Amino acid sequence: MGTVLVSPVADFTDQPVVASIRIPTLTDDQFFDLCNENDLYRFERTAKGDLVIMPGTGGKTGNRNAALTSSVYSWAVADRRGVAFNSSTHFRLPSSALLSPDNAWVPRARLANLTERDKERIVPFCPDFVIELTSPSDRLTAARKKMREWMEGGCQLGWLIHPRAREVYVYRPSGEERLQGVDELRGEAPVDGLILDLKPIWDPDW
Q1: Is 31 domain-assigned?
Q2: What distance in Å separates the CA atoms of residue 202 and residue 184, rounded to the nearest whole number?
Q3: What phi and psi, each to the nearest 5 degrees, are found at residue 65?
Q4: Higher pLDDT, 74 or 22
Q5: Confidence band of 59 (pLDDT split at 50, 70, 90)
Q6: Would 14 be classed as within a structural domain?
Q7: 164 DSSP assignment
Q8: Which has the closest alpha carbon to 99: 56, 134, 50?
Q9: How far apart are CA 37 and CA 46, in angstroms?
Q10: What is the CB neighbour count within 10 angstroms for residue 44?
Q11: What CATH number is given to the structural domain containing 87?
Q12: Dist CA 18 CA 174 (whole Å)
């Protein structure tokens, strides 16, 4: 079905092995079924058709992502304008890439025309808002590149949270902004009203 390419690395704590598999004929439905049949792994598909096997996270990163998911979900339920999604959700970008952010939000109006089958499978468009959270093994350059891919796909606002340096990169259609020394993030269109407390992200309490 394809060739598995494993990047050689010297230090597994900083640069994880990433397997990239080229399967040009894999359809969106086949990709979705592959993910379901191999639920111990996380996959993404690049615009070129490569499958990328995503590394798992450690305890602190998992706890940080749980805090993010809880905050965004609770706000979305109260706000009612849109729906929040967790890191297991794949979205289809115009480039044909199938990517999963750590957190995402989509207005209800965009979801209204989806069939019940569509709702159970890959969301067929780019979310309006995404959050990506780096883990100790992530390369910041790769994370920033993925954020640019979200924006090119039609995302309106993105937050890249980098706990190691206690910094946040804010992405808008107009460009990227780097923030340091902040303990909260305040949403703007399309998620105006969202307030994200960063203290549990900077300093998990265990």
Answers
A1: no
A2: 11
A3: -70, -35
A4: 74
A5: very high
A6: no
A7: G
A8: 50
A9: 20
A10: 17
A11: 3.90.1570.10
A12: 31
